[in-house]
Amino acid sequence: MKTKLIASLGPSSSSKETIASMLNEGIFGFRINLAHGSVENWLSLIEKIREAESKLGKLASIVIDIIGPSLRLGDFPETLRVPAGSIVEFCFSDCCWEKLRIPFPRSEIFGNVSIGDIMLLDDGRSRFKVVDVSEECIKAEALTNCELKSRKSVVFQGKSFDLPYLNAEDAENLRVLKKFADYIGASLVRSSEDIETLRRFLKDIGCDAMIMCKIETREAIENLNKIIDASDAVLVARGDLGMNFGLEEVPRLQKTIVEKSLEIGKPVVIATQILESMIDNPVPTRAEVSDVANAVMEGVDTLMLTGETAVGKYPVEAVRWLRRIVERTEFYYTPLVNREQMAKSLKKRYAKGVVELAEDINGALAIYSMKGTTVFSIASLRPRINCYVAVPSEEVARKLLILWGINPKVLKADSYMEGLEKLYAHLVSSGSLVKGNIVVLTYGLKDREQIVKIRVVEDVSDS
Question: Which family would the database say this protein is a member of (predicted)?
């Protein structure tokens, strides 16, 4: 399977048995959402992920989503069902959820909210119209039958608010979790400056996680090229995109983001409502199957399950179905990228050269990478031949797990050539390379001298 899968963790998937089952069924990474839960809860989930890795002999990338400048309801104990036409008060203080006075701890935005504004919650399923605003409270009428849940995000349609990108809560949580994160899910990015703010903070606290930028705001679409350039990976966050733009715009926006990410050469992930019906049902809908297949044919690196695995009744079955759809689609279709339109840096041209060399001679490609940089470029080209990667540590390997077609092997080595020979020996001994196969062996582009080897496998003793 070339396309990778990520599962979001939550109440439905918090047991070590479920985490291990999802990893065994084909998950390459797990997402932890800092909008829900506590430090103790998140550390427990990470411990269970590591236990599953050890048990199954498989690594998993960890994506930690920060809250960012999002607007969210406060904490309250139960789901509230609100009939259409009801008046709900979203209050900074003096809250009483039983009386539909819902905590909304974002009083700094109240002055920019107007009567008539539309509030959207729960990926747009809950809609409210503002009927009154004070310094302490926003009063709104439910336009639909709504379910209000603790800590759910809120969008005011067509509006944005000038809030600091990194809040104190995110900063404190990242200090605690910094050594476990492979990617930081950067929520509600508005500009490349937001990404640089986060990157500076990560550097200051000694966190080497990469940044997965979530495209979900109007400002992000306006600044799309610069944001993709500044990111390490890109996520199409269809939930908030649908609330900010309207559902009918999501397919066009998804296509634009995916195409631009592939053109620039950044890994791209699609999330939200991948198999939404499986929150309550053991089988996906035909529309969901088609949606997944189309994403695979577009050439995305990764598909991310959210509510399906976090709060759904069938988390393992959702993973199983997603893998099944991906594998079947990949059997018939190989995504094509326009390599000529991709970024033209020397390193990217070198990656293109070795990939096309291996393709032209109908060989395999074997790469040893110390930091994984070259592997990102290789994966972005969507090689049409088998591509084998080895790296010196689990930390590097986990960052590569979300890349299309890359399944890194950890082989410690003191030099690139030693690593390449260890990788070759492993491929021959494991049967991945057999007598008569041709393999191109190389490593990341160096400043002074570069070695590319072409080797024909003669027999097992070659290793």
Answer: Belongs to the pyruvate kinase family.
